[in-house]
Specification:
Layout lengths: L7 H8 L6 E5 L5 H8 L5 E6 L2 H14 L5 E5 L14 E7 L1 H10 L9 E6 L4 H9 L2 E11 L2 E10 L6 H6 L1 H6 L2 H22 L5 H22 L1
Parallel strand pairs: 1-2, 1-4, 2-3, 4-5
Antiparallel strand pairs: 5-7, 6-7
Organism: Sporosarcina thermotolerans
Protein name: tRNA (Adenine(22)-N(1))-methyltransferase TrmK
GO molecular function: tRNA (adenine(22)-N1)-methyltransferase activity
């Protein structure tokens, strides 16, 4: 992967960035995503934010190598602290992290979201954390995507400002993904259910503490939810 040819998941993330957007890519790594968007003339300005020194240096080198130093500002900062009000950022991408971490980045940096119209997230796990954050903070899901690349399954959740209420199934599985129920969606939740059944089987042989009892009840509920979704 490079800034000329992105991975499938980052290409999908890029597709949700609107033409002319001012982007902040948080956890930008090598800054491949903003470089790709500049190269393809979809945007003209971006912030590449990194909290780790190594990837920050890699991003700076890559931006310089591509000749995009006038278009992309690389900043070392924790989450949305890399964004300044004067940047005029209206779109944020956060890809390749766990859902709870993405939600915490958005929550801790909520004061930086004043001018932001769209948030594009690509959680690796626990995507429901992002949906919960959205509902609690005045954002609505406008699109979702699920895809498989190199044996791993990824979700993309796109948010814009608004109010929405989602039921238990929509929060867990995603309102758009639940409606579509693509083959990748079915594969993901069959995998999850199989793993939960394996863990439940192990716990059935363990002691009967309150903690184990609660965990078993939680797993049974998760398995039952997946069963409802996959059989309907």
């Amino acid at each position: 992967m490079n800034s000329d040819k992105l991975s499938m998941r980052l290409t999908a993330v890029a597709s949700y960035v609107e033409t002319g957007a001012i982007l902040a890519d948080i956890g930008s790594d090598h800054a491949y995503l903003p470089c790709y968007l500049i190269r393809n003339e979809k945007i003209s300005k971006a912030i590449a934010g990194e909290v780790v020194k190594g990837p920050f240096e890699s991003a700076k080198k890559n931006v310089k190598k591509e000749g995009f130093e006038n278009n992309i500002t690389v900043r070392l900062g924790n989450g949305l602290q890399a964004v300044e009000e004067s940047d005029g950022v209206d779109t944020i991408t956060i890809a390749g992290m766990g859902g709870p971490l993405i939600a915490s980045i958005l929550q801790e940096g909520h004061t930086k979201l004043g001018q932001v119209k769209r948030i594009i997230t690509q959680p690796n796990i626990h995507s429901s954390s992002i949906r919960e954050w959205a509902v609690q903070n005045g954002w609505v899901i406008i699109d979702e995507e699920i895809l498989k690349e190199d044996g791993k399954i990824y979700e993309i959740i796109v948010l814009e400002r608004g109010q929405a209420n989602y039921d238990e199934l929509e929060m867990k599985f995603g309102p758009y993904l639940l409606k579509e129920k693509s083959p990748v969606f079915i594969e993901k939740w069959e995998r999850e259910s199989t793993e939960w059944k394996r863990i439940l089987g192990s716990l059935e042989k363990a002691g009967d503490t309150e903690e184990i009892y609660q965990r078993k009840e939680q797993l049974r509920k998760e398995i039952e939810l997946v069963g409802r979704v996959l059989t309907n």
